[in-house]
User: Fold RNA polymerase RpoE-like sigma-24 subunit from Anaerobacterium chartisolvens.
Amino acid sequence: MEVSDINIVKKYRGNAHQGLELLYNKYKKYVYAIAYRYTGTKEDALDLTQEVFISLFKSMGSLKEDFSVLPWVRRVTVNRCLNFVRDKKDTVSLNQTTEDGSEMQEFIPSDESTENRVVCRDIKECMERAINELPDRERMAVLLRHMKGMKYEEVSKTMNLPLGTVKTLLHKGRKIIKEHLAREGVWEV
Assistant:
């Protein structure tokens, strides 16, 4: 049975333990999925998920009854992920799946011949390096838009930035990736 955000907040006001349990049960997979996409490892994603829920639980009492919980959960999760990425500077894996279940590496052509496999592997590595070299904000915008499949408006709300700024970050990020790929001889301008 799906519990509404309003009912979660109401339940929390009546019985904090049950409200927190409802919040956790409703959003644990969502938070873990986002954390896993940013960290690439199960252990780090579980740690981040725990940190996110600790933050959510601590501030749950300040919510108004008609408050929409999902954007708040998303923002806390993304902020924790941004902090993790900034602190750890992990690499981005092309094995990560997008919203539709496909992997980033599927967008890079492959063939069964040895030569083409080597070329494809080099392109994947080059793409990973290009994404990892992006400044934090540009990388986050690119990952949210292209890996998470979010619309521009969703990226704007998640990153707490104006829509124009998000579009600028995406443009800069794509340009940097394109320039990197051109330098590596993968992209012809």
Remarks:
- The CA atoms of residues 74 and 158 lie 7 Å apart.
- DSSP finds eight helices and no strands in the chain.
- The chain has two domains: 5-88, 104-183.
- Helices lie at 5-14, 16-39, 42-59, 69-88, 114-132, 136-147, 152-159, 163-183.
